[in-house]
Amino acid sequence: MSKDSVKLLNFWPSMFGLRVRYALDLKGVSYDYQEESLSNKSKELLEANPIYTKIPVLIHNGKPICESLVIIDYIDSVWPGSHKLLPEDPYEKAVARFWADFGDRKLFDAGSRLRRAMGEEHKKAGEDFKWALMKIDEALGTIAPGKPFFGGDAMNFADVALAPFICWFKGYQKVGGFVLPGPEEWPNLYKWVDAVNSVDAIKKSTPSPDKVAEFAEVLRKRVLGAA
Amino acid sequence: MSKDSVKLLNFWPSMFGLRVRYALDLKGVSYDYQEESLSNKSKELLEANPIYTKIPVLIHNGKPICESLVIIDYIDSVWPGSHKLLPEDPYEKAVARFWADFGDRKLFDAGSRLRRAMGEEHKKAGEDFKWALMKIDEALGTIAPGKPFFGGDAMNFADVALAPFICWFKGYQKVGGFVLPGPEEWPNLYKWVDAVNSVDAIKKSTPSPDKVAEFAEVLRKRVLGAA
């Protein structure tokens, strides 16, 4: 492993980039980190991801891998190690992939609309965001009853894909103008949040929720200012 | 394999459903087929996919698997057989996943807008659709130079994910009001189209492009009628 060159092109608040950091840290893979400016992307980023010109990109021994779920799948194949993220069982693997994808499809989508939309659409985004979290709470109770993670006692592919949203909760509430239900209503979700937040590999790279919320409010103000 | 119960809930023109049929047929897995009415979904569909209430759903020995890319990944794990869809090599696997995802992200998205959007947005959808096909042409030339498929001499995960769009080309052109560039401009794409269309497993389940185009025009007329 010592001969491997591993580099991550990233932008610090990105939940997609955080996924990749979490996966690398859970595997104990060391990597070079390159912070990108989204308004002035590096030549390396533009060349490594010509289709989307977006972070995160993992460059492994000169080869670029793009799209966060593809990257964490790649990391799991190259460094299976002691902490496998994708279950061996095909059905359990499909369930993990389904919930990882759910994060992009529902949680990220509603979160984007919370930052961008106005009026009724903004209100709807808040409802969609809460619905998505409620579904995650239910899923945790069904898939891993009594256990903290989608992966049971350890984080799996779904956990790694969804965990980066946690540090955004505060920011989403601020720009959404709502307060999320608490642990009485979503016991599985909050148990999961506590478990994720206590994993060393997660603590290592997660930005402070205050800093993320500040960033989210800057984005929101830009939208409001332009409206 | 004879004891397996395999059932597909589908709607015939769906490219997502077609992917699943292609994967099952390439593997030689026989299955029961249930056509769903999107305006009157079966209780079985609603219970099997409570999150999205959408086809396709594969029900394997009573367990539902949802989301087409998750399903074809599942099929490849359960029935690896002689025709493996996902490459063993992690980088090649990542490339196949990237292009499969590209189909959803760019081709399907632009296609949806071709059916739904008006005016400038409709024009933009046509440009985006052609851009996506151009990128697929380029990718084929780079990933598998001289070979017909993303998978080289045989269809892989990316081929199965993208192949269902072929029978929609005619419909997309009709509702988009444009003519796609030909083989002179996109030689790799058309070589791929011919190769895909000559695979027995693909011929078996693909609806006629005329029938798909008719369906696309009905959808488009509904949008125009409501505008």
TrEMBL record, chains A, B:
Pfam families found in the cross-reference section: GST_C_2, GST_N
Q: Which PROSITE patterns match?
A: GST_CTER, GST_NTER
Tell me which residues make up the GST N-terminal domain. Answer: 4-83
Instruction: Cite the entry's keywords alphabetically.
Output: Transferase
Residues of the signal peptide: none
Q: What would you give as a GO molecular function for this chain, any one? A: glutathione transferase activity
Domain GST C-terminal, first and last residues per copy: 89-215
- InterPro entries membership: Glutathione-S-Trfase_C-like (IPR010987), Glutathione-S-Trfase_C_sf (IPR036282), Glutathione_S-Trfase (IPR040079), Glutathione_S-Trfase_N (IPR004045), GST_C_Tau (IPR045074), Omega/Tau-like (IPR045073), Thioredoxin-like_sf (IPR036249)
Q: Which Gene3D superfamilies match?
A: 1.20.1050.10, Glutaredoxin (3.40.30.10)
- EC code: 2.5.1.18
* Keyword field contains Calcium: no
Q: Which SUPFAM superfamilies match?
A: GST C-terminal domain-like, Thioredoxin-like
A single cellular component GO annotation: cytoplasm
Q: Which reaction does it catalyse?
A: RX + glutathione = an S-substituted glutathione + a halide anion + H(+)
Q: Its Gene Ontology biological processes?
A: glutathione metabolic process
Under which main EC class is this enzyme filed? transferase
Q: Does the keyword Endoplasmic reticulum apply?
A: no
Q: What is this protein called?
A: glutathione transferase
Instruction: Look up and give the organism this protein is from.
Output: Selaginella moellendorffii
